[in-house]
Amino acid sequence: MTIFLALSALSASSPSPASTMSIWFDKPAASFQSSLPVGNGRLGGMLFGDPNSDKIVLNEISMWSGHMADQNRADAWKNRARIVELLKAGKNPEAEALMNATFTCDGPGGQEGGPYGCYQVLGQLHVDFGDAFPAGAPYRRELDLNDAVARLSVGASHTRELIASAPDQVLVYRIKSTGAEGKKFKVSLTRQERAQVGSDGDHGLMMFGSLTAGGGGKDGLAYVARLRVALPAGGNVKFEDGHLTVSDAAEALIFVSAGTDYAGPIPGKHMGKAYREVTLRQIERAEKRDWPALVAAHTKDYQKLFNRVSLRLDGADRSDLPTPQRLEAFWKNHGDPALAGLYMQYGRYLLISSSREGGLPANLQGLWAEEIQTPWNGDYHLDINVQMNYWLAESTNLSECHLPLTSLVEALVKPGERTAKAYYDAPGWVAHVITNPWAFTAPGESASWGSTCTGSGWLCEHLWEHWIYSHDRAYLKRVYPILKGASECFGSMLLEEPKHGWLVTGPSNSPENAFRMPDGRAAHTCLGPTIDEQILRELFENTAAAARELNEDADFAAKLDVMRKRLAPNQIGPDGRLQEWLEPYEEVEPHHRHTSHLYGLYPSDQITRFGTPDLAEAARKTLIARGDESTGWSMAWKICFWARLGDGDHAESLLHRLLKPTGAKGYNMTNGGGTYPNLFDAHPPFQIDGNFGATAGIAEMLMQSHRERPDQPFTVSLLPALPTKWHSGSVKGLVARGGIEVGIDWTEGKLTGATLHRKIGDGRIRLRTSAPVSVSIRGKAVPTRAEEPGVVSFELPKNATATIRG
């Protein structure tokens, strides 16, 4: 049977029929991990859908406790020379002890209760119907990715629908009853702490308060949530005892607007001091519109992004099963390839819903959280997690959704300059391993993990990627000073290691991992971990290329070229694996969740571009030794690794492991990965980076684009890691580097056709396929040149589409 993952709009005026693009349940949510997410990049809701006692968890992306605080140790740089001396002498544990005493942040860092703060839930919307609906009534609750509407139906006469509208900047919950039940209910807003609730006009509620600033119980951000009830078909609303009572309402629209007085330092369309007035205008404007108009505007805005990509996978289809049962069946039988297509599109849905231009970037939980104290503060971890959130943005045609990450990086520059001076006595800017909306850039509070020093370098890779996909010269000019500042800092702080004279970072660590010293002691702190050298090799190359593209700083670009060549190279250890550190240390934890020294394999392409087959084989041996079992986001990274190595079956087997059903909610940082009933990724607990990383990995199986040599244009590879189980199908709308939109059709594992549409620039295309192809533009054959086995090249002008036939 052929599964079409169609992207057409469905009417939101009534419950949709079963859809292959739906996540659905036949019962209410028993937990947050079974509820359904909606979001407009700023406001989010999680629909539980109990017939008699409904709940929607509410989120607003700037609900952050804490405040701006300088936690730099002003003279930390004075201790660096001694730390480095100890590292060069092989006294790593002693160096780490000195770091803990003198080279961590000044203050509590990211610990609970301090100024660092955490992302917090906004509150809950409750709708209480009493005992209106008897047990056993037919029930369906679904999120349809086609139109971003969450729906539920109870029996034949009662429906509810929830949207998070980006055009109107409100959540709207529609309740409609054509029978006798469900026309009377109570509406309330609650929050676990620091909230007051009162009336807001004749038909409204207002919840307001302030979050803690951390330390001494001081007030931080102020927030407000407004709720209004409109009754298009008549009825009554009355405020009493802190809630609204609605009666005789065949149809009700519940509007929610919310905001905070966050005004920076991350630039964007923040409300600031006018947050109360802005939320009032938003809800007053929205409540004047009827449901069809609200849904039409919401759907048009959403589908403008979502409909760019479609995916069809052929094979057995179990979309007839409720999603939890479908996950169980997939885990047991490993069939249902359409589930992979649904999962990929769900990742795109989640990014559209949690990351919009002008807003804060998606955090560890994207937009959705139910706690006051979110896991790991719900922040932006710079040693992979926030970057993984955005791996899918460019390749799956959501380039605009990438821009909030640029805003975060821009915000880190000024505080990062102070951190660079304090810890390295260096020019430019640096950020370490954790950050937040308050632009924290100091090392973390423990050297064992907090001394990772190349978070800023990794972030700069995303700035360059956006340029490579968009060729937006104004954007490159905007971010070039950021690239230059990061390069200046690292160029100043690099050291010569004593054995080879290589330039290395230090002190640093390979993110969150430990190694064994020759005397058996465990240590984390080191000089020049492999990931640092890979990140700086890429940063220096990209910064020099940007300078030359903009015709600026020729001498500086030449200096970066020299330093790049002196960085410590990738090394293959005695065991044939890629070394994680300068020395072939034994890992304390051989199956550690971080595989950071393979950064050069993915997301970077250094191992496949500048390396040799020996390095690729060393990376493969590293992955085999680390094993397949891991946490959720780590397993997603391994999907990307194996796809980059061209092993689609191994990548797909890891996707199968990632989709293992789980209900685990506690903290597990070893082998606890899996997927919750609502398809949220389980670290556990819930972290959204696994969803985003696996989505990028699925795209990587179907299409890749890299420069295989520095003097070549990007090579577009079609079906480079196609799993055997995805034997036939098609994908439309993926984007290759250089701004080339790609469509691919295949049957029984063989390419049958493809299209390449150039959105920007002109020039030669290099195309890698597993079989000979012909190329035409507008029906006319195009001459091709065989450059090497499996690679042909041809000219493709701007705005032209090449048709490929296998």
Strand content: 15-25%
Q: How many angstroms separate the termini?
A: 23 Å
Q: Tell me, what's the shape?
A: globular
Question: What would you report as the Rg, rounded to the nearest angstrom?
Answer: 27 Å
Give the number of DSSP strands.
Answer: 38
Unreliable residue runs: 1-18
Tally of helical segments: 19
The residue-averaged pLDDT reads: 94
Biggest sheet: strands side by side, in what order?
2-7-8-9-10-17-14-13-12
Q: How would you characterize the overall build of this protein?
A:
A hairpin with a 3-residue loop joins strand 3 (36-39) and strand 4 (43-47). Helix 6 (338-354) crosses helix 19. With 806 residues, the protein is α+β, with helices and mostly antiparallel strands. The protein is 30% helix and 24% strand. The strands form eight sheets. Strands 2-7-8-9-10-17-14-13-12 form a nine-stranded antiparallel β-sheet, with helices on one face.
Please give a quick description of this structure.
The protein is of the alpha+beta class. Helix content is 30%, strand content 24%. The strands form 8 sheets. Strands 2-7-8-9-10-17-14-13-12 form a 9-stranded antiparallel sheet, with helices on one face. Strands 1-18-30-31-32-38-34-35 form an 8-stranded antiparallel sheet, with helices on one face.
